Amino acid sequence: MDPAERAQAARARVPRIDPYGFERPEDFDYAAYEEFFSTYLVILTKRAIKWSKLLKGNGGVRKSVTDLNRTFPDNVMFRKTADPCLQKTLYNVLLAYGLHNPDVGYCQGMNFIAGYLILITKNEEESFWLLDALVGRILPDYYSPAMLGLKTDQEVLAELVRMKLPAVAALMDGHGVLWTLLVSRWFICLFVDILPVETVLRIWDCLFNEGSKIIFRVALTLIKQHQEFILEASSIPDICDKFKQITKGDFVTECHAFMQKIFSEPGSLSMTTITRLRKSCRAALQAQS
């Protein structure tokens, strides 16, 4: 079939009005659209089959999912009295992911990530594939048993603070404070239950679109914006308390202004720099272990 015939045949099969009620323009490429959508349907079908098989599977992962009751206790939709109760949905997503990626299985903190995805999508399968994108592609090794990726990025943040906020770095070094003590939950939970819901969702939009660099931008912005406040600390408990306080208040609640800040406050932050720091920090951690 030549291109003209293929275009005519596609035009006959594809509705002139799209699913949202808009009429397609006269120059709409029906053949290209049909080719794209056919490929996309194959992907969706394969994913649906994979998801169905995972739901039927079982294994030792069940024993690892122990945090369901501790997931969003202040959210009425996750309470056992809710109808439907999202704990069952959360259980299915975490169990399926553990079977899908046995090298990771279930790691503490994944319940909050999966729980947020369920609240957003209201769909088990979509939540599962988004979780897979985060854990398997965007944040590799964050949730592996050794959590090497997570530990590496905490050290990368420490190096970035030394480069951009040396006074804060000097305070930490002077008191011998480990960065994991201050920011581990920021990285593990991707700011869930740390920053306001609307702000977290805006951060996640950028995380899916731009990758893990956004986590450093958020962390650096929080620290830089409150640098003078942090520098008032005179002890380790005081430092820890101040790092809890900087995640609260109007600055993080006004999500639109906050998101503008994260792209201006930290200044230049290239992936080349982050990749270089990750390589050196990972090597140092591996040498220590």
From TrEMBL:
Domain Rab-GAP TBC: start-end pairs: 41-211
Keyword field contains Protease: no
SMART domains: TBC
UniProt entry keywords in alphabetical sequence: GTPase activation
Coiled-coil ranges (or none): none
Source domain of life: Eukaryota
InterPro entries assigned to the protein according to its UniProt record, in alphabetical order: Rab-GAP-TBC_dom (IPR000195), Rab-GAP_TBC_sf (IPR035969), Rab_GAP_TBC_domain (IPR050302)
GO function term, MF aspect, one: GTPase activator activity
PANTHER family on file: GROWTH HORMONE-REGULATED TBC PROTEIN 1 (PTHR47219:SF10), RAB GTPASE-ACTIVATING PROTEIN 1-LIKE (PTHR47219)
Chain's role: May act as a GTPase-activating protein for Rab family protein(s).
Name of the molecule in the record: Growth hormone-regulated TBC protein 1
